[in-house]
């Protein structure tokens, strides 16, 4: 299954996505708000897991392609967090794009489509997003698509007191979409 927006395609992953995805996951700039960059093997393992979920559920973290160039630019989509959070169970929306493609409004454009799929095609009641308090770009995407800022929390997988530990939660229901 493939979905289109004005400038982007949300699609299943291709073998050829793995190399540019590993390169972005190895970039300290792209991974600035994560505790670590990823090795090629870790990056490929993530693609394997994501592909399995897309095959099982029909929704997940889609590979995103720029229509004008055909380039793979990263992922945007829906996911069930793999760990217990203070507000579990939830479905989250997430995004990671390679740096040359930042600042063009691509993440909100793809995210609006992912919300539409979740709410209209899969009858989800609510979708959340969360990120490190320091990650302003990601919070801007949440705000642009109509998500409402809720509580702050400490990420359970990170050490309390370390800068990335403090996170912020956003939520959205179907009628709040922008
Ligand atoms: C977060 C991210 C997906 C935003 O995607 P995007 O397509 O650039 O989104 P937008 O174009 O709407 O820009 C959103 C904000 O990013 C910031 N931004 C834009 N271009 C930027 C650049 N070149 N460098 C740093 N920040 C930039 C701005 O704050 C912008 O807000 P504004 O439009 O009000 O100025 C992208 O920055 C990214 O992939 N970052 C690395 C991975 C990550 O942090 N993922 C989220 C984890 S929760």
From TrEMBL:
Enzyme Commission number(s) from the entry: 2.3.1.128
Catalytic class of the enzyme: transferase
Coiled-coil boundaries: none
The N-acetyltransferase domain, residue ranges: 8-175
SUPFAM superfamilies the record matches: Acyl-CoA N-acyltransferases (Nat)
Record keywords: Acyltransferase, Transferase
Matches recorded under InterPro entries: Acyl_CoA_acyltransferase (IPR016181), GNAT_dom (IPR000182), N-acetyltransferase (IPR051531)
Pfam family, one: Acetyltransf_3
UniProt keyword Methyltransferase present: no
Keyword field contains Manganese: no
A single GO molecular function term of this UniProt record: acyltransferase activity
Name the UniProt record assigns to this protein: Ribosomal-protein-alanine acetyltransferase
Native source species: Buttiauxella ferragutiae ATCC 51602
Lineage: Bacteria, Pseudomonadati, Pseudomonadota, Gammaproteobacteria, Enterobacterales
